[in-house]
Amino acid sequence: MAKTLVSVCLLGCKVRYNASDLKVTDNHFEKLVATHDVVSFCPEVSAGMSIPRAPAEIIGGDGFNVLSGR
After folding, report:
1. What is the model's pLDDT at position 18?
2. For residue 17, what pLDDT is reported?
3. Does residue 17 lie within any of the structural domains?
4. Range of the domain at 19
C-alpha cells in the first residue's frame, strides 16, 4: 500500500490557527484515504505552534517585509 502524507486538518483534526479543521468530504479523497497508508502530519503543531494561535497571513506586504520586521 502506498504511503501518502496528509495534513491532519484535512482529516478532521482541529489543529488550525483558530482551532478548526478543513475536513475533506470528497469521494475521491475518501477513496485515497481508504486505499493508501496515510501518514498524518501538521507542520505548525510539529514546529511547536499553539492551538489556537494568531493567524500567520501576510496582509499588505510580502515576505521581504516579514523578514525585515515590518
Report:
1. 95
2. 94
3. yes
4. 3-54
In a domain, 44, yes or no: yes
End-to-end CA distance of the chain: 47
Residues of the chain predicted below pLDDT 70 = none
The Cα–Cα gap between 22 and 29 comes to: 13
Q: What does the pLDDT read at residue 58? A: 84
Neighbours of 9 (CB within 10 A): 20
45 φ/ψ angles, rounded to the nearest 5 degrees: -65, -40
Residue 59 lies in a domain: no
Which residues are CB-neighbours of 2 under 8 A, at least 6 positions away? 36, 37
pTM of the model: 0.75
